[in-house]
Amino acid sequence: MTVDDREETPSRTAPEQSDRGSTVELSRRRLLGTVGAAGVGGIALGAVGGVAGHAAAQSEPAADLDSVGRTSVPFNGTHQPGITTPMQARGHLVAFDLAPGAGRKEAAALLRRWSSTARRLMAGRTAADDSAVAFDAGPSSLTVTFGFGRSFFGRTGLEKQRPFALDPLPAFSSDQLDAKRGEGDLWVQIGADDALVAFDALRTLQREAGDAARVRWQMNGFNRTPGATAKPMTTRNLMGQVDGTNNPKESDPDFQKRIFVPASPADGSADPAWMAGGSYAVVRRIRMLLDDWEKLSLRDQEQVIGRKKSDGAPLTGGSETTEPALDKTGPDGKPLIAADAHARISRPDQNGGAAMLRRPFSFHDGYDEDGVPDAGLLFICWQADPMRGFVPVQRKLDRGDALSAFIRHESSGLFAVPGGARSGEYVGQRLLES
């Protein structure tokens, strides 16, 4: 067969999609036609048949795909997006420092630009001056969340508006922190279910910072892609453990009180009025010593955590959501969940009721000079008061968590994340224009 014979050769249609997204098989007639053409063309089909099939398939209209790309998250609201939003497949965390000479005026202009752009991108509207990588994609559950670090208030002359909750976190014995990868004047969290959509938002916001702010540090993370499992499941971390079982739920009667700053001082809040509806984010880069962890037997790994690796159920029995029976012992008389097991120590009822909403991303940044994986968890937790959420839990973990031998805290940051923007408002407006 020659190139001129292509139009006479039946070709494969563009794949049709069922409601489950699977490709429908070729019809019997088309399949037989293709086989017949192969018999006539012989070896020549191998040279040009693939090109012919591709060209013919391209000429037929493709069916729309059912995709997570169509899902959008509203920008406006009582709270900023990206806090209670379901876990996303891709994340970028980036901190900025205001440029020398930039102050309150420049910060307000920057937050106005950023908010306008985030509102547009989260709705799936890309523009010619964006990076272009997301032109043909939907919003893909994109969220953009903005926060302020402790140093922001001195740079903008707003020290009197700085919340007491932004006081520096205490030092922990397991910390090996790199100051260059921690804190910052401004913090941005970007999440999406498509890597290109997330990158487009990151690149656009970084470019729009212009002369007002400079990147201090950036970290990239990932989670399981929605739809990768047969049913919704709690995500796993890079140790293979189910991670996030005991997260507070929005249906809990005290969820709002634990996670978000009350709407007014009358509700018992010590925070400034501009933080109403906001939350505090603790951000930690936690490296997992995977080579050491993977040397443990499955049983030993489960003893360290206090849960089964297969399904996240407590070692005392039941399913992932079963409450651990902390006083249950084995035939040897010892507790089935050890005194230093991570699941025991981190429980709210073992920490005076302290609770935080964990919403992390995993990371893998290659290998160090010794060939050891530079991988772990970009830990992000949300609470109305870090001194009542993160700090008491971390203090207890620091004193005797069996997991501590297999992790290393390498950077840390604490950020005040104001409430969500109203229609026509930018994030932080109530602070910067107060």
TrEMBL record:
It catalyses: heme b + 2 H(+) = protoporphyrin IX + Fe(2+). It is found in: Cell envelope. Residues 11-25, 69-85 have a biased composition (Polar residues). Keywords: Heme, Iron, Lyase, Metal-binding, Oxidoreductase, Peroxidase, Signal. Residues 234-421 form the Dyp-type peroxidase C-terminal domain. Binds 1 heme b (iron(II)-protoporphyrin IX) group non-covalently per subunit. It is an enzyme of class 1 (oxidoreductase). It holds the Pfam family Dyp_perox_C. Residues 80-223 form the Dyp-type peroxidase N-terminal domain. Involved in the recovery of exogenous heme iron. Extracts iron from heme while preserving the protoporphyrin ring intact. Belongs to the DyP-type peroxidase family. This is Deferrochelatase. It comes from Streptomyces luteolus.
